[in-house]
Design brief:
globular, alpha+beta, dioxygenase, five-stranded mixed beta sheet, Jelly Rolls, DIOX_N, gibberellin 2beta-dioxygenase, oxidoreductase, 21% strand, 10 helices, metal ion binding
């Protein structure tokens, strides 16, 4: 399809002699069975409408899932089905345009240069290539007066971002409270102007055993809130094994990012996750990244601290440096106190 990015042409040196359509087992890799499971499911209506015991029970479930899984899913989260359905519809509309149009789309949508991304420019082998495309949008880019023809998209993104921002603040405050900190840190440092949305599309891939939709990684934020379709493909590490997340049409997925792991002094876990490709079906998702300003200093809320103090800018720069040099992210191990 002319809407798909030209993966084969751009990365032809990585494909080598692979025959498209032929079933392959990746070289030097064992075939690992991946078990499908449901993430912990938490009903957030208890936070606003439950009695004291229900509210505390809900907070404990959020705390436990963040420690044991680093992932959980929420229902009755405050984002209407109408907004989620409109978001998916608008997203599909944007990605279905011809590839050449999408590369110019940021101009028409008033997005920052470089918002549209696809593949992995730093990939040196197939296992580092992400078979996906995305619009990575700073919330500041969501125009209040969008260009003609795109007002519905901008309005929908704005509605989604506003409601998801409130949810992220609420969850961060719960997690801070369970650590013993009724902190205003997140209200002061994680503002709509510092957060991001990423609209993702994973096209069908002819060599799903060789290429990831998104290679294994952890998120470099405090929290990520994900709305995904029902195709599936998200996998995460639990107890040293990869498990596949069963989609739930009613739920949003929440995961802990690196910054929350550092801030919590390793109480909450930022775990590796990835997206696997599908040979027949495309997949859509939208992720909201709850981030501080670049100047915000991250330090553990308990002593002795596992990690040294660092700014978000320093963290991002280190991640980008490692990806450029090594092909993948190192992340928090770079900032351990004992590594100084």
């Amino acid at each position: 399809m002319d809407s798909d990015p030209p993966f084969h042409e751009a990365y032809k040196t990585l494909f080598g002699k692979i025959t498209i359509g032929k079933k392959i087992t990746p070289k030097n890799k064992q075939v690992v069975m991946v078990e499908e499971c449901e993430l912990p499911l938490i009903d957030l209506s208890r936070l606003d409408h439950g009695d004291e015991g229900e509210r505390e029970g809900c907070k404990l479930e959020i705390d436990r899932a963040s420690q044991e899984w680093g992932f959980f899913q929420v229902v009755n989260h405050g984002i209407s089905c109408e907004i989620l359905e409109k978001m998916r519809f608008m997203q599909e509309r944007v990605f279905k345009q011809p590839f050449d149009m999408k590369t110019k789309e940021e101009k028409y949508l008033n997005f920052s240069a470089g918002s549209y991304r696809w593949g992995t420019p730093t990939a040196t082998c197939l296992s580092q290539l992400s078979w996906s495309e995305a619009f990575h949008i700073p919330l500041l880019d969501i125009s209040t007066s969008p260009p003609a023809g795109f007002d519905s998209l901008s309005s929908t993104i704005g509605q989604f971002a506003t409601t998801v921002s409130s949810l992220a603040q609420k969850l961060a405050e719960v997690l801070a409270e369970k650590l013993g900190h009724k902190s205003t840190f997140f209200q002061e440092h994680c503002l709509p102007s510092t957060c991001y949305l990423r609209m993702n599309r994973y096209p069908p891939c002819p060599i799903p055993s060789e290429v990831f939709g998104l290679m294994p990684h952890t998120d470099s934020d405090f929290l990520t809130i994900l709305h995904q379709d029902q195709v599936g493909g998200l996998q995460l590490v639990k107890d040293g094994k990869w498990i596949s997340v069963k989609p739930n049409p009613e739920a949003l997925i929440i995961n802990i990012g690196d910054l929350f792991q550092a801030w919590s002094n390793d109480v909450y876990k930022s775990v590796q996750h990835r997206v696997v490709t599908n040979s027949l079906m495309e997949r859509f998702s939208t992720a909201y990244f709850f981030c501080p300003s670049y100047d915000t200093v991250i330090h553990s809320c308990h002593e002795p601290s596992v990690y040294r103090k660092f700014s978000f800018r320093e963290y991002r720069q280190q991640v980008q440096e490692d990806v450029q040099k090594l092909g993948s992210k190192i992340g928090l191990p770079r900032f351990l106190v004992q590594s100084q």
